[in-house]
Amino acid sequence: MYLSWLELTDTRCYEKLRFEPDAGVNILVGNNGAGKTSILEAAAYLGLLKSFRGTPDDAIVRSGAEQAVIRGEFATPSGITRVEVVLPRPGRRRILVNGKRPQRNRDVLAQIPVVAFQPDDLDLVKRGPGLRRGYLDDLAAQLWPQAGADQQDYERALRQRNTLLKQAGRHADPVTLDVWDDRVATAGAAVFDHRRRVIATLDAALGEAYRLVGERGGLTWDYSANWGASIGGGGGADRLRDVLLERRHRDQEQRTTSAGPHRDDPGLVIDGRSARTMASQGEQRTVALALRVAAYRVLSQHRPSMPLLLLDDVFSELDPAHAAGVMTLLDAGQVLVTSAREDEVSATGRRWNVDQRTVT
Predict the structure, then answer these.
(1) Radius of gyration over alpha carbons of the chain, in Å?
(2) Can you point out the beta strands (E) in 130-250?
(3) Which of 304, 306, 331, 343 has the highest count of CB atoms within 10 angstroms of its CB?
(4) Is residue 234 within 8 Å of residue 219, measured between CB atoms?
(5) What is the chain's pLDDT, residue by residue, as a tens digit (360 residues)?
(6) CA 56/CA 135 separation, integer angstroms
(7) Distance between CA atoms of 288 and 117, rounded to whole angstroms?
(8) Ramachandran region, residue 279 (left: φ > 0; alpha: ψ -120 to 50; beta: rest)
(9) What stretches of 91-128 show up as alpha helix (H) in DSSP?
(10) CA–CA separation, 314 vs 77, rounded Å?
(11) Dist CA 307 CA 143 (whole Å)
(12) How far apart are CA 13 and CA 32, in angstroms?
């Protein structure tokens, strides 16, 4: 799979832009603030249906404009897929695939696999568990479309249960709580099961990726859940339902749901040491890089086409040994790389100059 062309209208710093990348390696060179990352963000949005920067949709709209429009065309094993996203400010976004609204957003995730590296990936390791939960959930949705639907079901049920708790507290109707407990438990067990499958699928690839980017030792997951679930086999809807009932009084007092996959902590360990609290920043950076390399390799192995690979200012943070490990990926499929220096990326490919909001 590869991106044939990309068009931006009132997107970030671009009033109008058409970009036609090569099907192989593309190196975008320009000063900081020139708009390199915005091109990668737009390309990724067409596959992930969200910003890989984690920013809200209205931040993508160019200052002074009413809406942003991102269009692109992908050559896939099943044919040409054209995706268009309109992001109004304010209002709800509109998504078209080959001119029609998709029945389900997860159908887009199934067609356009994307893996993006960025400097902020260090937060995957250093910060709280939310980003690591998101990493597992995003990868699950790209591997198995049903995972995306189960995540939406869980978020919807959790939101409804929390709304009831917030509004009624200790006076919440027990029968109504029983209904939402059942829905949260059913969908939550499915989300957890998808995460467990991702971790099992990643197992070999993660260790290999850690060595590929220049490190020794073992890198593994240490998944912690406060409702008794474990990636070794414990968990399930009945278990979560029981815990929700046990904690109902506390949840009513605190007016929020205290147990479930939204509270799980998917930790990472290096030879038994916590990567978040006991690893050096250099080791943490390598772990973050290994997570993205492993995701890319897993998607490549389990999908009919290679993912679109986006490397945003990655090489400026790497020493030569780690950079060499990443370079082994660059001959596998379509790659978009950004750099502030012409000599920073030694890969062979088409080079683009990004300057004054133009790309040549």
Answers:
(1) 21
(2) 219-224
(3) 306
(4) no
(5) 999 999 999 999 999 999 999 999 999 999 999 999 999 999 999 999 999 998 999 999 999 999 999 999 999 888 999 999 999 998 999 999 999 998 887 778 778 899 998 888 899 999 999 999 999 999 999 999 899 999 999 999 999 999 999 999 999 999 999 999 999 999 999 999 999 999 999 998 998 888 877 677 789 999 999 999 988 877 799 999 999 999 999 999 999 999 999 999 999 999 999 999 999 988 898 899 899 989 999 999 888 888 999 999 988 877 777 777 777 777 678 999 999 988 888 788 899 999 978 999
(6) 18
(7) 9
(8) beta
(9) 106-111, 123-126
(10) 29
(11) 11
(12) 13
Answer yes or no: are the C-beta atoms of 299 and 307 closer than 8 Å. Answer: yes
Residue environment code for 107-140, b if the CB has 16+ CB neighbours within 10 A, otherwise e: ebbbbbbbbbbbeebbbbbbeebebbbebbbbbb
Residues in the chain, how many? 360
Count of CB atoms situated within 10 Å of the CB of 213: 23
Q: Which two tokens stand for residue 299?
A: 């998607």
Tokens matching residue 257: 């749901």
Q: In degrees to the nearest 10, what's the CA dihedral of 225, 228, 233, 238?
A: -120
